[in-house]
Amino acid sequence: MSTSQKMSRRNFIQGVAFAGAAGILSPSLNRAMGYESPNERPVFATIGLRNQGWAITNKSTKFADFAALADVDENVLGANVEKLVKKQDKKPDAYKDYRKVLDRQDIDAVMIATPDHWHTKIAVEAMLAGKDVYCEKPLTLTIDEGKLIEKMVKQTGRVFQVGTMQRSESGQRFLQAIALIRDGRIGKVQKVTCGINGMEGSPKIPEAEVPEGLDYEFWLGPAPKVAYRALPEMREGYGGGVPLYSNCHYSFRNWHEYSGGKLTDWGAHHVDIACWALGATDTGPSKISPVSYELPVEYKDGFPVVNDQYNAATSFRIKVDMPEDVEMIITSEGDNGILFEGTKGRFFVNRGKIVGAPVEALKDNPLPDGAIEAVYGGKVSENHTANFIEGMKSRKQPISDVWSHNRMLEICHLSNISMRLGRDLNWDPKKREIVGDDQANSFLSRENRKGYEINM
């Protein structure tokens, strides 16, 4: 691509502004968005390619050209390069080190799908390098990381989409749920229950030889230095097969060193919708109470005493005191989905259904015209990436912005802290700190391992 073509595309993305960050799908999406030729399509790169990394790359080739891919596992990297060649008929450059992606001046935006403990470092450095960012949920490992990302979005002026796709893709039922609540169909909301399922613990996982092609030191990155652990039994269907039990690959979600278990995995979806429906995306809870829970290993002072088993909660029932005297329950029991209860009725919604008397009543008393669009802020996009690119054009934050995401994710992080310490936590949503509990406040941040500090 010539220099003039690069400047044309970059000027187009950064200079065109018009109202609204949605309403972008049409029979010819590229024309509707102004991309009349391949040279005007934004240039992307993906960092972290297993599972969801390929999923978001694959769907985004409809709207963007991918110039580079990065992953610390050379087997995953090579396999995804070949898959992408088939999708876009052009081979992307391949890197183990994501920093080489950020050095590229021709890349407009990065998509981040690494394990959670890498998100903040890469996202901050990408923004400082002039890239817009799409980052998979959960956005952060700690609450203070969220504050830093918010600060850098403001400082750099970058557009930042969080990959909570229930707000767009497969989100029509959730948008309808919010519209029902806003239209008063269940009266005043009194209780909302988020069912996010539990997880199983693990057997003891022994130290093992690092798989060939994986740079495990770089995979750990900001996390503490520990030995690689795995059992030989394989979990198929996840990027070619990975160990069923390990402290890496797919299972990173089950370790507090790298993630937050079900609370940040599925909680990042359903607690988000619940907060959106309650109008609580710019505030927070006042109290978190661990009613009942089970941790798979023994804890002392909030830390697991063993390092050879999963350590995130396997079952739980958390009570959250929300504004306007609304009670939120986050539970591993029952159906996966959200139950809204109000003074005039109740209904249940998940990715497969929305049911209840208020929903049935829509046959005779439909929602007002434009009610769904009013929730979304414009015409609803059927694709999260398309919404992100529209934000890149308008320089407006997309539907899943960092501020609303961090506010709801604070509930999930606080729930984990409450279980790790075994006590209620009182939260100040204005100061964004735990009231009168220095030990609990120490869990709001985590120091990166030496050599993996955020470069600012």
From TrEMBL:
Pfam families: GFO_IDH_MocA (PF01408), GFO_IDH_MocA_C2 (PF19051). The keyword Translocase does not apply. Residues 60-163 form the Gfo/Idh/MocA-like oxidoreductase N-terminal domain. It is an enzyme of class 1 (oxidoreductase). Its EC number is 1.1.1.18. InterPro entries: Gfo/Idh/MocA-like_OxRdtase_N (IPR000683), Gfo/Idh/MocA_oxidrdct_glycsds (IPR050463), Gfo/Idh/MocA_OxRdtase_bact_C (IPR043906), NAD(P)-bd_dom_sf (IPR036291), TAT_signal (IPR006311), TAT_signal_bac_arc (IPR019546). The keyword Glycosyltransferase does not apply. GO terms for molecular function: inositol 2-dehydrogenase (NAD+) activity; nucleotide binding. It comes from the Bacteria. Keywords: Oxidoreductase. Residues 201-453 form the Gfo/Idh/MocA-like oxidoreductase bacterial type C-terminal domain. NCBIfam families: TAT_signal_seq. PANTHER family: BCDNA.GH03377, OXIDOREDUCTASE FAMILY PROTEIN. This is Inositol 2-dehydrogenase. The gene is iolG_15.
